[in-house]
From TrEMBL:
Keywords linked to the UniProt accession: Cell projection, Cilium, Cilium biogenesis/degradation, Cytoplasm, Cytoskeleton, Exocytosis, GTP-binding, Nucleotide-binding, Protein transport, Transport
Compartments, record wording: Cytoplasm, Cytoskeleton, Cilium basal body
Source organism superkingdom: Eukaryota
GO MF, any single term: GTPase activity
SUPFAM superfamilies referenced in this protein's UniProt entry, alphabetically: P-loop containing nucleoside triphosphate hydrolases
A matching Pfam family: Ras
Family indicated by similarity: Belongs to the small GTPase superfamily. Rab family.
Record protein name field: Ciliogenesis and planar polarity effector 2
Keyword Cytoplasm: yes
GO biological process: cell projection organization; exocytosis; protein transport
Length: 244
């Protein structure tokens, strides 16, 4: 796991200097909806690079995959559960400031969500979701024990070390009906060494309820990209040294 706040400034969305960047993803104090070809607009004198990532949202039916995607994008949440019939994609923009360099980046996260029954019926859907995925969010519900027990099976199928993996427990606010204990969560985290976050409660118009998840995802993606770039550079340096 990447220690929180080691690569990006976790509370930067609360700082005054970030206001202009976050205003570009807000409209009348609510999140803007971005299509596949849309992006935040900054003043001409401000230059901001955008990094693009594909994120697959994985989990059993009913754990809240579609709700999570809508929540992270600031969209209206579905009033009732319905099975996602195919692949749905949601674009999320999130500005973050790198701790070491002070550089600001826009993270463009394209969330891929597919219904459990659709994945079983159509063999081509899961390969499409996995293809060139940079990260996967493993979801379970705190009120559905079977979804938590299935986590080990899900994570074992993603053995590519280059893919960022984050676990999110949904419906954490329904503690009166909780089927997953804090001890269970701790044991899983110690076994798999993966970031584990919680989502639940009322939705606000602010950024505070989604900042922990988006910051964690952005930080781990950037850390992984830096590792991959370093690994790619080393053979080139060795070749140059040999030639010299």
């Amino acid at each position: 796991m990447v220690p929180p706040g080691s690569a990006i400034i976790s509370d930067w969305h609360l700082c005054k200097e970030s206001k202009g960047y976050f205003n570009s993803i807000l409209h009348k104090k609510r999140r803007k909806k971005f299509g596949l070809l849309e992006s935040p607009v900054m003043p001409p004198h401000v230059s901001v690079d955008t990094v693009h990532y594909k994120v697959f949202v994985s989990g059993k039916g009913g754990v809240g995959k579609t709700t999570l995607a809508a929540r992270l994008a600031g969209r209206n949440l579905p009033s009732m559960h319905h099975e996602t019939t195919g692949i749905e994609t949601t674009v999320v923009y999130w500005p973050a400031k790198l701790r070491d360099s002070g550089r600001v980046l826009f993270f463009r996260l394209q969330l891929w969500d597919c219904g459990e029954n659709a994945l079983r019926r159509f063999d081509h859907l899961l390969p499409s979701c996995r293809e060139q995925a940079d990260a996967v969010l493993f979801l379970f519900s705190f009120i559905d024990r079977t979804s938590f027990d299935d986590l080990s099976n899900q994570t074992a199928k993603w053995n590519d070390p280059s893919v960022v993996k984050v676990v999110i427990g949904t419906k954490f606010d329904l503690f009166m009906h909780c089927d997953v204990s804090e001890r269970d969560v701790k044991e899983f985290q110690e076994t798999w060494n993966l970031p584990m976050l919680r989502m639940g409660g009322e939705v606000t118009d602010g950024l505070g309820d989604v900042a922990p998840i988006l910051n964690c995802l952005a930080e781990n993606l950037w850390h992984q990209e830096c590792l991959m770039n370093t690994t790619a550079v080393r053979p080139c340096l060795q070749d140059c040294a040999t030639a010299l």
